[in-house]
Amino acid sequence: MERNFESDMARLQEKLLFMASHAERAVRQAVEALSSRNDALCEAVKESDDILDRLEVEIDDLAVSLLARAPLASDLRLVTVAMRISQNLERVGDEATKIAKRVLQLNSDLPLKTAVEIPPLAEMALDLLKESLDSFSKRDSLRARAIIKKDKAIDELNRRIHQQLVDLMTSDASTIVRCLHLMVIAKSLERIGDHAKNIAEEVVYLCEALDIRHPASTGQSAV
Fold first, then answer.
1. Range of the domain at 86
2. What is the value of pTM for the model shown?
3. Is 117 helix (H, G, I), strand (E, B) or coil?
């Protein structure tokens, strides 16, 4: 029984890391599709979403089976963290798919000639996601805490982009539809950053047995 438990714990981690690589790749493809106006990449992202949905169910099923065996505290944390991280990864896939769908709409129209700060936002979201996943694979809570500190910067950049797009729509009504698509894309990138932060918080819990998701209610500091 113990050998089977250890084998299933290893399988849980393997599935989660496999899901993480798929989620990160989906975001990269969505971002590349936006910059290159590549419809084929958009379709690849949409296909990845189905894979991520399936992996979330598989991880949940395996986690429930492991929980039924009354694991020790450290194993219990890993199982519950795996479930919560997989939920965040599935939502990352949803946001990547939203981006891909909007890119397909944008590709049917002329590109905007005015610069909007979407590329740096995309880079920040990707960096946060990669860093959070690396902190999990390496069990690095210090790295995870550093990610949490960066979340406000991505929120601020999204607000600035929103204002840039509002100004553009106000000055040129012909850009309204395209600007609205870009607003949705920017919001999805911000949410990917939020999910990266959530994953980082789970890493802190896994490594330190400390729940920092709601510091205001516990009197703890998230960083």
1. 2-218
2. 0.92
3. coil
